[in-house]
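Data card: per-record layout.
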Amino acid sequence: MAPLFPTTGILQDVFSTQLPSGPPRPKPSPSTVSESTYAPPSLRFSAWSAVDDVRLKAGALSNEAQREISKASSTAQAKTGQIELYSAKFYAACTFGGLLACGLTHTAVTPLDLVKCRRQVDPKMYKGNFEAWGKIGRAEGFRGIFTGWAPTAFGYSAQGAFKYGGYEFFKKFYSDVAGEDAAYRYKTALYLTASASAELIADVALCPFEGVKVRMQTTIPPFASSTFGGISIITGKEGTAGLYKGLYPLWGRQIPYTMMKFASFETIVEAIYDQMPKSKSEYGKGVQTGVSFAGGYLAGILCAIVSHPADVMVSKLNVNRQPGEAFGGAMSRIYKDIGFGGLWNGLVIRIFMIGTLTSLQWGIYDSFKVFMGLPTTGGAAPPPKQTANL
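The structure for this 390-residue chain is written out next.
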């Protein structure tokens, strides 16, 4: 039986080399040392080897993907030619980038939006998101969880195109009107004005599809089975005006949201670069798009809080506004029913949804700009040089 405590010989062997008076520990002969003793971990441990193999393969795939993206980017830039800032090609690229950014992201979070809209209309319908998805899935199948995805894709693609393309246009336009020095000194006001102008137009494109989406998501079963079928039903009962009866509250929700989205994003990104050791131009594409993603998420949280009461009112008006009822009268009636607290129903889920949406939108938008050989958004230009008075 093995002894419970180490023997004197073992203790001497372990600690003798630490004592000046002790005899030196004999070095093991090569014949007594296993080859695996000094072998790398990947050869001694099969699990380590498997993980290391996966890591190396993932790195190789990532490098290959980057090479393919760079190749595609070079091909696209060769076909379009050098895109000059603020040229027609520049605005076209920004418009298409905005279409991708908003259309893809809003469509992807349709399940979150579905639960949010239903809870805004009836707070007692579901206790939480997972309960809601479970009930919807059992009653309507997996397709039911994505109710409203088609009008979402149409509407927010159009809105994103006008929003981002319009923002770039109006930012340059107002900057030229104000002059270089004033544009820099009052850059936050410039961001707010440009984004508000762009969103004013973008919401006109969004409104018909938003109305169809909200009605599809808040009526069980959905009042229409397709986007354009829903438009036909609404126009048949209420005329074209029925597609735009939610326009004023949509402006009330989206314009403050977009003003906060662009102004806070530009300010946050500028602050991030100010804290970094090098200037924006010295960083690579990956770092710049990473900054866009981080700035977008922080901006999205602020956007959700600012625009949430109007978002609730949009959902209520699209469902509960009576034909011919005045806008102000409908809002007053709904507010009496839900109270101030009701304006904040679904805020937590909307913060998560909008924060994720906004970060992804800025990431997609700036990645597309980089793909087309353009600089990312944000990071204010240096102040204009002051000429000395002679």
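Known properties of this structure: Confidence is low (pLDDT under 50) at residues 386-390. The longest helix spans residues 285-320.

See the next section for split statistics.
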